[in-house]
Structure to design on (617 residues):
């Protein structure tokens, strides 16, 4: 028996240890900075949206909470940072923290109400929460700018030194650092005992209740944390583009981040790093080649993905590897 | 006092008209979700296709209204049958998220295709002369087309309920919704049943899209813009139910019309709050089975 215990512990330890492949996305992000200096603005957006997809992966991939309303938190963060910067407080780092706090508060409040439901009902509740915020932002035109978007944001230099430039150098590095910190925290979280219990809730919620795990509280904690992270992502987009429109709270925003994550692969921490660049670069290319009908091509891309690569890119990799392992 | 009564009548009338359109479109979605457990987010695209087919036949080819509507329903029913056999069928019982990706992809394709063929502006819908103007119904006069819409909706709803209660096809559908494995064991060809139910649901959506073109404007983003409303009707009504969505559609239609009448500033906000409250009270919808 001690041998078994040791081997189980070893297996867990191996999962925590950093794998060489985990350096790949970071190497790619650094390389992209030097190879594509003309595309840094798009690159910064991709890095910021990866934070958003990562936050979604935490609730969807780990805790199994299917949501079509994650834009509620993204948008709350974006508007918080935006409204601060438009009203005389353009300090970016405190703006980020305020955005995360506001989005986390929305997550905590809405989660306390809606996380008691499951399945389609929960999906509808998440969707409705986001829709309510969208309507509220639309009507509160004096504060949010309504349908015209928030005008007149002034973001100060980071730490008083690094000014946001028009080529996106500062934005790219700023988003890169925030993403790296977020990723490190999320990685530690999913490999902790808390993260394990989330997987347990996803796989068999009845059994988790039976062993006395506080299921609702766990879900609420991860939902709040994920909301704060999504708010952080929204604030990054607001600060780097210096504009916030109603789209940050829209169903389309919630839907596309879900799509990006599915394309990459859910519940594996790296789906966000694959799906977001793939989707956003494809969208950028289609929109350049065919600015009017690009919706059709991105839709076709999604349908082909799901027909030929179900489970996303990581799903395909996983199947390919297990075929290699068992000839 | 007279003002309030007049407003209430007006709200009831327009609310019921909207409810008919919402019901016709959403009932198919409720059945596919209840029957196959399939989350068809692209259901609204079939309603949009019906609307586009009808308005183009009328505006461009000069076909008469009833003929254009019938042709639109027929085309969409047939097309949805093919799409179900080619695409949807592969994903029954599969991962929910793959279904989301597939149907969101189809929505995006429908947006792009509609923009390509009809441009970004919404299609005008001119009711035929016999159905335009006002009609005096004793109490007061109402728009003729909406009166026709309500009558049509009521007729189709009655026919649909009779079909599901009285025909063999209806028995099979209800059996499969209640217990799929048992229905299969008893020899129901569920694969064919799915295809027929799917085509029927899409045909009804096309009918709703065509009839309701004046209420829910036919534009490229139709499937995305109205998705929340269709989903609310299904979730509030209860999955797989035929009557639930009708009650939910009435609720949504009346509440939406009333809220927009009394508090236009807050727009759709209240309808979302109402949905949230109902789903907290009855998580499986008003008519959902535990």
């Amino acid at each position: 028996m001690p041998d078994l215990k040791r081997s189980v512990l070893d297996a867990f330890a191996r999962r925590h240890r950093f794998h060489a492949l985990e350096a790949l996305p970071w190497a790619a992000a650094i390389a992209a900075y030097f190879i594509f200096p003309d595309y840094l603005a798009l690159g910064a957006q991709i890095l910021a949206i990866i934070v958003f997809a990562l936050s979604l992966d935490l609730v969807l991939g780990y805790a199994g909470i299917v949501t079509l309303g994650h834009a509620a938190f993204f948008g709350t963060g974006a508007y918080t940072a935006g409204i601060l910067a438009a009203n005389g407080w353009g300090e970016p780092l405190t703006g980020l923290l305020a955005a995360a706090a506001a989005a986390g508060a929305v997550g905590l409040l809405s989660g306390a109400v809606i996380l008691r439901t499951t399945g389609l009902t929960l999906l509808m509740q998440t969707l409705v929460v986001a829709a309510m915020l969208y309507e509220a932002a639309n009507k509160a035109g004096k504060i949010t700018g309504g349908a015209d978007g928030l005008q007149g944001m002034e973001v100060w230099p980071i730490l008083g030194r690094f000014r946001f430039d028009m080529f996106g150098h500062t934005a790219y590095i700023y988003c890169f650092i925030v993403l790296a910190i977020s990723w490190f925290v999320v990685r530690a979280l999913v490999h902790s005992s808390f993260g394990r219990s989330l997987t347990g809730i996803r796989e068999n919620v009845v059994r988790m209740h039976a062993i006395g795990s506080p299921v609702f509280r766990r879900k609420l904690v991860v939902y709040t944390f994920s909301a704060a992270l999504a708010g952080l992502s929204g604030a990054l987009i607001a600060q780097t583009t210096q504009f916030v429109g109603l789209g940050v709270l829209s169903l389309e925003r919630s839907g596309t981040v879900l799509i990006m994550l599915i394309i990459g692969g859910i519940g594996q921490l790296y789906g966000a790093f694959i799906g977001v660049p793939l989707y956003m670069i494809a969208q950028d290319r289609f929109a350049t080649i065919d600015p009017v009908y690009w919706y059709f091509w991105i839709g076709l891309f999604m349908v082909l993905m799901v027909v030929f690569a179900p489970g996303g890119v990581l799903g395909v990799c996983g199947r390919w590897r297990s075929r290699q392992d068992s000839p | 006092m007279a003002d309030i009564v007049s407003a209430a009548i007006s709200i009831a009338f327009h609310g019921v008209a909207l409810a008919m359109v919402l019901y016709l479109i959403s009932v198919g979605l409720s059945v596919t979700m209840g029957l196959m457990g399939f989350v068809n987010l692209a259901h609204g695209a079939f309603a949009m296709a019906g609307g586009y087919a009808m308005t183009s036949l009328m505006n461009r080819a000069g076909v008469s209204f009833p003929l254009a509507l019938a042709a639109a329903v027929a085309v969409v029913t047939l097309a949805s049958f093919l799409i179900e056999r080619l695409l949807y069928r592969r994903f029954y019982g599969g991962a929910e998220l793959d279904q989301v990706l597939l149907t969101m992809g189809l929505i995006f394709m429908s947006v792009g295709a509609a923009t390509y063929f009809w441009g970004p502006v919404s299609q005008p819908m001119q009711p035929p002369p016999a159905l335009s103007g006002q009609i005096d119904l004793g109490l007061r006069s109402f728009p003729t087309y909406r009166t026709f819409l309500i009558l049509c909706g009521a007729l189709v709803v009655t026919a649909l309920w009779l079909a599901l209660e009285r025909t063999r096809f209806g028995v099979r559908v209800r059996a499969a919704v209640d217990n799929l494995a048992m229905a299969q064991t008893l020899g129901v060809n569920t694969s064919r049943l799915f295809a027929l139910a799917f085509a029927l649901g899409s045909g009804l959506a096309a009918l709703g899209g065509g009839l309701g073109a004046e209420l829910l404007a036919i534009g490229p983003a139709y499937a995305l813009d109205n998705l929340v409303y269709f989903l609310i009707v299904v979730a509030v009504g209860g999955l797989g139910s035929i009557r639930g969505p009708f009650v939910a559609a009435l609720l949504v239609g009346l509440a939406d019309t009333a809220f927009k009448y009394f508090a236009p500033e807050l727009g759709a906000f209240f309808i979302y709050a109402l949905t949230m409250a109902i789903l907290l009270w009855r998580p499986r919808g008003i008519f959902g089975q535990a």
